[in-house]
Amino acid sequence: MKPLEIGEVPDELKSRPKAFVAFIGLDPQGSNIHAAIWDAFSNNRGPDRAPLNLVMLPEKHVFPKPKPKHPSYERYEERGVLKSNWLRKHLAQVPAAAILFFDMDWDDPQWADKRADCSARMRALRASLQGRNTKVALVLVQNNLSIPVGDNLLATERAHALCNACELPPKALFVLPYSDHLFGFILRLETAFLEITQGYYLNECKRVKAHKDFANKNTHQQLLIRHQFKIAFLHELKQDPGIAIRHYKQAYVDLLELKTSDANILEVKTVAGILNYKLCQLAFMQNIPLDAIHQFRRHVDIFKDRVGNPRLAFEHSAWMSKQFSHFGDLFEEAVGFGLTAIQTQHPGFYFQQAANHALARKEQAARLCRDVTSPPEVNLLEGEESLEFYGQRPWQARAQGRSDAVDPQTEDLGIQALQHREKTQVDHSALVVPLLSSAVAQFKKYRCPRMKRHLMVQIAEEYYSSRDYDKALSILTHVLWDYRSERWRPLVSNILTTALKCAYLSASVPAFLMLGLEFISSWIQGTQEEKSSIQTSIFNVIEGSLPVAFPGMPPSSLAIADSAWGQKPLPREPLHNLDMDHIIQAIECKVQFGHSAFYADQRVCLKVFLRSNCPLPIKASGLKVHFNNQHYNAFCVVEEGEPAIGSLHLVPRRTQSFSFAFLPRSCDINSDIQVCSVHVRLGHPPGGLTLAWNCVGGGSRLAWDPIPRRHGEEVAFHQLPQLATTRIHPRRPQVSLLLDHVPPVLVHEFYQLAITIASEEVAPLTDVCLSLGLVDDLDPKYYSTTHFTCEPVVPKQPASKIRGFRIEDIPAGGRRKQTVLLRNSEVGTRRVFVKVEYRTEVEVDGRVLCCSCCREIFLDLECIEPFGFSVKLLNLKFDPVETVRAEEQFVVQVDMESHCPLPLELISGSLKLGPHVGLVDKECQSLVETVKLHKGEVARDLFCLVAPNPVDAPTLLGQYTLQWKREGAPAVATHVVPLPSPSVQGCPLLLEVVAPAHGRVRTPLTVSYLLHNRTLLVQDVELVMDSSDAFMYSGNKLLHFRILPRECQTLTYNLYPLLSGYVALPRMHLVLGPGTAAASTLDALLGEMLPSHIFIMPQAKTVAPCEAMSAS
């Protein structure tokens, strides 16, 4: 058996204990039925199955014999607390239940022989378990699905006979039919087996409690602890965790009362660790995590200062490490089963503490075992794997077995053996790294990035101490990214130094160069001697030589480094580019265009600034700028030996600038020229290292030291702006755009916009294109209601822009004029652009360039309604009406008021009528033709219409179309106004009056009333004419008459005016259907159709004949 390590817990306690059930008599290899039964029992044993440990044993299996029991504890000598073989015995050697499987049917013809054979096997099984309290049971495997025993008389009799022959109670006999429902029978058997095992463990608990009652607390403390532990574990096997916790707690309390010394402290701590493990495990299983945490904290507080022998202090740290590690495992397992942990309380903290104690163990072992060079001559650790009790020393156990005391010399030799084993056989790094890795995983899970990085640095340091430099370097370079971004200078400096040592000791050339260039930066803390030495080593490696010795490194490490560099082939080819943007830069770079934009006929100016933060001067061998357009790369190159551009000799803490200039290409107009990266080459071919600064997106500049302003230095490096992108604009145009138009713009008119292009160029203008239209950020409704055109035609699809309208070439100093028409159908202010593009030749630095130029101007055009329209319906009396009557004439009146500040000419007005209405006159001329309107003036157009038939619903009469134009404009605009939608009603009678326009006092006048029957029925009418003080009249005052369908009745009256002025006519009353229930008066209709007044002039004066003669 493998010896239990310090602080370790037996494997039997780490998992949930299950009742041990032994199966006897199954032969899966010889019987398919037995194989199916065993597979059903053993496969898919998940948490939903009964907690049983099912083991198949041969029939002649020999169980361990019980040892003789003590009749009393009067002379019992305690030798330890917990026996190391007790758990394994009850979990894997002594079953709680032994189940005998036997093939036999109730109607088997050889029933008697098989019954005798079965009883013989049962006696043999009992004999092998003699002295044990193991429960036995019998399972009959039957091939035929029989009737239940209670309902089958033969089965009942034979079952009773079989129980008597096997000396079994009826409850210990089970029947297992082999059928399609085998798994259901198996589950029921498992439940029965579980009940049997629970009865066994209950009896075992009673037996142990009976022994405990004979023990004396003063003299048998260890025995009482052992009994409490046994009772608790047996209750666990009985699946009663609540009672198990209570007994484990009592055992823990009894253990604390035990006197401790250097001789037994390890045993006490080992048992305490086991008891604490079980208490915490069960608390987590019972979903009371706070109790588990409280128990563990109390456990640690009690034993954290019980170190024991100072020479074995590393064992105490190992024990403490195991305690935290085990609790972290339990905590993590509980989280996996659904426990919710939080950021301030999770398993990572316990793994971290376990790692800290493991590190303390490593430190103590190095200090305490330094002088131990060899083990003692006598192997005092022999027999460690077969100790009877947990936590004892082998030499102490042997002396205790002989009832002797351990002499001090033997004790010293035993301690020496332990120290030598700790020094030579224990790999401390292998203990620390897994614990730290577990802690990292937990802190990462619960989103604690800084703790995660801190622990990763500890892992790297542990790898470094164990001389696994490659792994240490990989971890440190990974965490350095985060520490650089947070700019914690001491942390970055410390980690970077360790990483650089790892790169040096592992002879990793890329990592050594990158970390070395970062280390020699002034931002990193370090001595001048160290940085100068590292800089020398860097350039040695670049040139293909070996680095110098790392300053401050011990000789043993230097020997390792020399061996590694000696086996490493130094680079003879150019190294990969080193990205400087994500490290702390020893050489800083900035680029700056002269302006944010250049014109196509200007030289683009670029400056590159380099500043060295290294302790020693640097001699670069080349500089090259890379653009987004590779065409310009060749113009920005500095090679060694070109002092005209700038020296590549970089002095520490000085800024060196390099100036470049080049002409842009015409194809790059209206695009950006961007510096993608700057490359500086260190070393000479064929080797060398290229430093690259990425300028796209600005990079991630980590830290710069402010440079004090010195005499002769224009500006400090950190104050230089970074400008890595410039825009190439088209050449500035030497043309002017002149616009000739008369605002405002009127709705529906073709608005004239005259554009004159005046050239001021010294060369002809070719490929001249005119573009104009609405800008792109207006209200969307304007784009669908605006049209630009060169012809006065209303388009089918509005075009809000004109693109690339070609114009003839313009000579130098010449002019071209183009008129564009703008038509709007919506009021509002529109912003219009006018752009002319052309090509011309210009001379720059002796070169003739063909440049594209563009001139663009903007103007705001306000569009207003030219007229305000008002449409009314009038009757023949010129009174406004809302409805019209069929076959009755009415008037449409259209008023138009000018809103334009300029004179407007009205060309004509016309009606487009609906099918249900028509003009009274076949030839109708508009009244507004050739009328000129100024602002605020109103023109009126009148049309007489008639609707021949009634219409039920209100229907549009039609539309009025007005043609107009500005005064002097060539194009005519059209404006359409919808007419009202009145309802057309039917009327039984239509009345007309035939009368002179005026009368004279005392001069008779004739008035005729025409009554038209508009129906297809005879109309019975009664007429009543009222008297009048203004007239004497002759005619019917009361009349009853009939009017035939579609006929007319004329009534004539002779009126004799008595008064002058606008005199009311005699009032007429008409009644339809007089004397009937449907009689109705037509007074309202008469009021609308007939005139109510007539103008009567005064009587003319007459002259006597004598007066006339005298006057002559």
UniProtKB/TrEMBL annotation:
Instruction: List the InterPro entries.
Output: TPC11 (IPR021773), TRAPPC11_C (IPR025876)
UniProt superkingdom: Eukaryota
Q: Single Gene Ontology BP term?
A: vesicle-mediated transport
Q: What is its main location?
A: Golgi
| Domain Trafficking protein particle complex subunit 11 C-terminal stretches | 1018-1068
Going by the UniProt record, its keywords in alphabetical order are: ER-Golgi transport, Golgi apparatus, Transport
Give start-end ranges for the coiled-coil region(s). Answer: none
Q: Name its cellular compartments.
A: Golgi apparatus, cis-Golgi network
Trafficking protein particle complex subunit domain sequence ranges: 264-520
In the UniProt record, which is one GO cellular component term?
Answer: Golgi apparatus
Q: Which PANTHER family has this protein been placed in?
A: FOIE GRAS, TRAFFICKING PROTEIN PARTICLE COMPLEX SUBUNIT 11
As for family, the record states:
Belongs to the TRAPPC11 family.
Question: Briefly, what is this protein's role?
Answer: Involved in endoplasmic reticulum to Golgi apparatus trafficking at a very early stage.
* Name listed for the protein in its UniProt record: Trafficking protein particle complex subunit 11
